[in-house]
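sorry for the late reply, my laptop died twice this morning and i had to redo everyting from scratch. anyway the thing you sent over, i finally got around to it. pasting the sequence first so we're on the same page, its 542 residues, then the predicted structure underneath. double check i copied it right bc i was rushing
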Amino acid sequence: MRILFVHPNYRSGGAEIAGTWPPAWVAYLTGPLKRAGFTDIHFIDAMTEGVSDEELRERMLALQPDVVGTTAITPSIYAAERVLEIAALNVPKAVRVLGGVHATFMYKQVLSEAPHIDVIVRGEGEEIAVELFSAIERGNWKDERSGIKGLAYRDGDKIVATPAADTVKDMSTLKPDWTILDWDQYIYLPLGTKVAIPNLARGCPFTCSFCSQWKFWRDYRIRGPKDVVDEIEDLHENHGVGFFILADEEPTINRKKFIEFCQELIDRGLPDKVKWGINTRVTDIYRDKELLPFYRKAGLVHVSLGTEAAAQMKLDRFNKETKVEENKQAIKLLRDADIFVEAQFIVGLDNETPETLEETYRMAWDWQPDLANWAMYTPWPFTPLFEEIKDQVEIHDFSKYNFVTPIMKPAAMERGELLNGVMKNYRRFYMQKALFHYPWRGTGFRRRYLLGCLYAFLRAGFKRTFYDLGKAGYWGPQTQKKVDFQFDKSRAAAEDAATDWQTNADKAAQAAARREAVRKQMKERAEERKRDRLDVGAGNDA
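ok and here's the structure:
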């Protein structure tokens, strides 16, 4: 059976400025499929290669696959739907499969608007894909699909979702096949080296209200550090990877395992060959402040910190569990350890004003991270915060839900003014860094890395790809009232996100609610018994 995976051709003007990122999902799916006996697997990275619809059609016709599979985050959902539409029109006998976070939660809307999709894989795909593709190979997958957990599909006029499959419990079974990727395509611009995105752990125990990742992965699990370092060693020796970013939401959660991971890298001499970066929380930097030099010795050179917002009220709304005053100190700790630090700010909520944007700039310059990033708040339709503000969401064009387009319109600003305020922050911050900091701070690796980051920013700015400025027609403050974000206004509001999906956090909250209800009930009964005894005593006295 011939399988074709396609990464949809979607670019946002955001993360791509740092380079071309390898689609790790296809490696993690191909590994278990090959071990299950599916060896005829092909991959087209339509995004990195810039594959047009016509070229994709021709390549599908040449391959004649039996299965075409793709994936989608929210902003790439329409591009993924188009991939499977092209498959339906040109290789109609192929079973068309969609996976990813958006389809997991929004399967009803996706199947309704894209009838050419045969089946959706919901949640982690490794184990589900093997079971589904085996049924397809047997030729009777439609008869078997109701018994396969983790699917959604149409059955006549009905949309059916089978019960959620278990999460992958044995993390040692996660053995991706990195040979499926053409590694010459994936370059991290700041260092001019090949880049990878391996997985140390999945899930997150924290429940930030704007985030969907903890909901998708459902529970927190970590791989064996030795297994992950085996993978990194292979990526370096056999594919030339010189930089990697751990895909985890927060790889430092399990302190013991993260230390083991770092020590394993050191023991194998990998820090001299491969540098790496992570996303993590301010609280973990505080916790591990004495270990930061050890992390740097292990090759950790870049930490992206979720400082999130300037105003403490915003941090509380995001459920971040951090304090504004902690952010500056965490940044200083990292810089003292010679680790580059990137501060992330979320902007664009309903209470954003020119004054709050100015405040984030002043904070960024006061804190002095090496890099700063202002991301537009994006109301993922399957997050807790969305439920609070969905009545304010006017834009339902998911292709613009990309952290760079202002989906929400602040009460006191137009969207073009918001974009202009963010660009003003970028211009001031990086102009001063370029003139007074990057060329003069340190020598060797530090200077090369910072100048490489600056090159990536300038390159994207020159090409007008940064923040989709070219598409939006933004050329500076004088154009802020003429910006056209090209929203597809024909897109209707989505149906409610799936309610059959339970995370460990959901279960814990429900258990806590049950315990509180039981305590309340027991207290009420105790009060009733006390009243009964008093009533009986009063009657006896009478």
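The longest strand covers residues 300-308.
thats about all i looked at so far, will dig more tmrw
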